[in-house]
Amino acid sequence: MRHNCRPRSNLNRRVLIAACALIILASVLSSRISFQPVGVYGQSQPAFGGSIDLSQIGANASNPDIWNSGSYVYVVWAQNNSGLEFRMSPDGGATWYPPLSSAPLNLAQDGGYSSAPLLSANGSNVYVVWPEVVDGSAQIMEATSTNYGESFSWTIQLTYGNSSNITPVIASWGDNVYVAWSAGTYSFVSCSNDSGAPGTWTLPYNYGTQHEPEIAAWGGQYVYAVSDAGLVVSSDNCQSWQSESLHPWGSEPWIWTYGPNAYAAWESKGNSSVVYYSYSNSYGINWTQPSVLAPQFNDTWAPMVWAYNNSAWIAVHTYPGGPKSQVYMYTTSDAGENWSAPIQLSQGPQIGSDTSFPFTVTSSDGQNIFVAWSQQTNANTWQLYASYSPDAGVNWTAAPGIDVSQNPNGTQASNNNDLANAAIASYGANCYAVWQYMVGNTNQVYFASTQFSPPPTTSTSTTGNLPTSTTGTTMQSSTMVSITSRSSDSISTSQTIVSTSTTSSAKASTTLASETGSVVTSSSSSVSSSTTTTSAARPTTTNTSTPSADNKATASSDPNFLLYGMGGVTAAASMGLFAMSRRSEKKPTGSFN
Predict the structure, then answer these.
(1) Residue 499 has pLDDT above 80, yes or no
(2) Is 410:381 a contact under the CB 8 Å cutoff?
(3) Is the pLDDT of residue 581 over 60?
(4) Cα–Cα distance measured from residue 514 to residue 295, given in angstroms and rounded to the nearest whole number
(5) What does the alpha-carbon distance between residue 532 and residue 515 come to, in Å, rounded to a whole number?
(6) Which DSSP string do the residues of 353-379 spell out, in sequence order?
(7) In this model, does residue 74 exceed pLDDT 50?
(8) Which of 86, 168, 288, 551 is the most exposed place for a label (fewest CB within 10 A)?
(9) H, E, C per residue of 203-256
């Protein structure tokens, strides 16, 4: 910027010099301030209110998950010793079915011991997956609704045998649904192209020798699956798989996709764990060499990923187990090439404080972004918190974030037991949250949604208006993109979605000043050719049942359908475009052998 600061006379020299100095200083400061991670100051700020007890049962409501298609909101949770419970709301949580005066819908047909369910929904289709004890062994179950969750058409038992099959994750795209899970020391994936109907599931493909599966899907064609053993990609809707060589690989992997862009992140564990990331801009054909996301920290864990158009967000958890523990957010707006400096979302260090790993990062439009975690407020109390960005990740709610649970007695939204017991979903600037809460000696599942408060007096910028609600009859696509014309089964390629989706506003800068004032750019510029081996379409089987010509078998009729696997209770859900996950390295105590 050029300033005309020449004085017209000696008499005014000192005054003008001082004035010019102030102008220049103000200009420099304003340019620097614009790059600092600051709190949200807009026309309105979200606040959660009106929490509702969805479970209303005697005991053992746990591990809730939530997903939405537009204003249709779906919640599922385990009632461990008597089944799996489900409720839906067609209007963002204002009313519920079954009504709160009635018992929830029980999806576990035999009332078996269930745990850690996950949801996926798009259009009128709702998919639920969970592990359930059947005849003494944990098996993977899947249920499908084709009428917005009003009823469920079928429940499929995907696995059989004596092994403990746990940690199912799920993604979907229209009538295509994808489930991965662990058993023993292996990870498997199976797919259906007919809404999960009986007889339409592919034979399990063993894609990893380790546990902790995650899965993502795009366009009814591209499928991405990760585990602690690495990453595999299918470009033909599970007919064949390509293994990617990314080193060093690690644990707790997360995978997300939007159009040609796919993002994977994982942790290295150990006393000085770091988070690595890799990305592909070619539908998984080529991947960058892994780069360290958070070089500022030498103890970083639990990456959570979300993407929209060319933007992506990764939340991480630093220094777990003590007052240094914090939740940070990183943002890219150029499809992974450059990432922002970390923005601290949680409360600063305090005695007796800790934070959980971040729960879901979620956005339906690439502009309104939410992330949730749990904050320890004293030795025995945890609160569920969330942070909100109205501008694609440039600015965020100032720490400590938004109090979601609003309960001074605390929640069970996390006690760092490695199993998620809270989750969030979003639709525009509306956020929906569920969490587990101990009332006396009983566990309950609570729900709350955002309400926007009047603007603060320090308002300096403007956020977007609340979106117009879209009913389920017109919202036939995932709410991850603003498309109302796509039916749930009419899109076969992701290019179509890209050409019809609404482009979100670009972030102002992807390289922000760090806490020390220096500029941090953790870009990965070297794209390696994929050194892969292509596996057979699916393994041969010794089933007693006979697969059809397209190599599909009916899972529920095949006693040898799956015999192996193992894992941590990671959990993933999808709205047809992506996989949203929860994680764990441990089996729920006392639930499965």
Answers:
(1) no
(2) yes
(3) no
(4) 11
(5) 40
(6) --BPPP--EE-SSSSSEEEEEEEEEET
(7) yes
(8) 551
(9) CCEEEECCCCCEEEEECCCEEEEEECCEEEEECCCCCCCEEECCCCCCEEEEEE
